Amino acid sequence: MAGHSKFANIKHRKEKNDAAKGRIFTRLGRELAMAVKHGGGGDPISNTRLRDAVAKCKAENMPNDTIERSIKKAAGDMDQVNYDAVTYEGYGPNGVAVIVNVLTDNRHRAAANVRNAFTKGGGSMGTQGCVSFMFNEVGQIMVETDCGMSEEDLMLLTADAGADDFIVQDGGYEILTSVEGFSAVREALEQANIPMAPAEVTMLPQTYTTLSTPEELKGMNKLLDLLDDEDDVQNVYHNWEA
């Protein structure tokens, strides 16, 4: 099986995010609340969406008691979970495609702040659908080489669970699934006590764009940093070949 190697970039992204756990945990708390409200309640056994959200929290080292408190709070007051899920699309320097997922209680504020990030980063916010066709929505699970299972056994385990692709990379393995098959593969790895970081449904680019000038690099980094600082922003996807 083959694919575009992104393990190093994802690991770097996670290490960068580890310096801002408070902000990460706030975002994960919103995901848990939305999963409780729209996935079928506060029981992860019966709520697949919540099980996946909990697994994502654990992959980010969110403490179990924090996860449980967030679930109980959302389950006890579901009428107060009033976040709107909004997706913005646009372009960074040199036409880099960018998708921004937002959970917000104020659409006007979120739109203004996201637009400001694009502008200050030397890009521009576009219309709905302007770049999303350049991405594929897939389940993506990253497993490090020293996970406690051989490459062959890990490949067989994920294939039997329904994985679409198993990509050997420098330092680990990238396992890709359909959106529908993500939970089954993730749970198979969890039952085998295989650590995963991250494990989520994501948007993977079909092609990548490079940046070459100092101005382009500075602008793209500023765009990503500004979006990362926004509490409403949940996920940012782009096709920059960093």
The tally of beta strands, per DSSP, is: 8
Helix content: 40-55%
- Within the largest sheet, what's the order of strands? 3-1-2-8
CATH class of the largest domain: Alpha Beta
The helix count comes to: 8
CATH superfamily of the largest domain: YebC, transcriptional regulation domain
Ends distance:
23 Å
CATH architecture of the largest domain: 2-Layer Sandwich
In terms of DSSP E residues, the strand content is 15-25%
CA radius of gyration is 18 Å
Instruction: Tell me the major beta sheet.
Output: 4 strands, antiparallel
| H-E order | HHHHEEHEEHEEHEHE
Q: Assign the CATH topology of the largest domain.
A: Alpha-Beta Plaits
Low-pLDDT runs: 1-5
Rounded mean pLDDT is 90
The structural domain count equals: 3
Estimated structural class: alpha+beta
Overall outline: globular
Which short descriptors sum up this protein?
242 residues; alpha+beta; Arc Repressor Mutant, subunit A; Alpha-Beta Plaits; 4-stranded antiparallel sheet; 8 helices; globular; disordered N terminus
Verbal overview:
- With 242 residues, the chain is an alpha+beta fold.
- The protein has 3 domains: 13-80, Arc Repressor Mutant, subunit A, CATH 1.10.10; 84-133 and 206-238, Alpha-Beta Plaits; 135-204, 2-Layer Sandwich (Alpha-Beta Plaits), CATH 3.30.70.980.
- Helices cover 43% and strands 21% of the residues.
- The chain has helices at residues 7-17, 21-39, 48-59, 64-76, 107-120, 151-161, 182-191, 214-228; strands at 84-91, 97-104, 124-125, 135-144, 165-169, 172-177, 199-205, 233-238.
- The strands form 2 sheets. A 4-stranded antiparallel sheet has the order 3-1-2-8. A 4-stranded antiparallel sheet has the order 5-6-4-7.
- Strand 1 (84-91) and strand 2 (97-104) form a beta hairpin.
- The longest helix has 19 residues, at 21-39.
- The two termini are 23 Å apart.
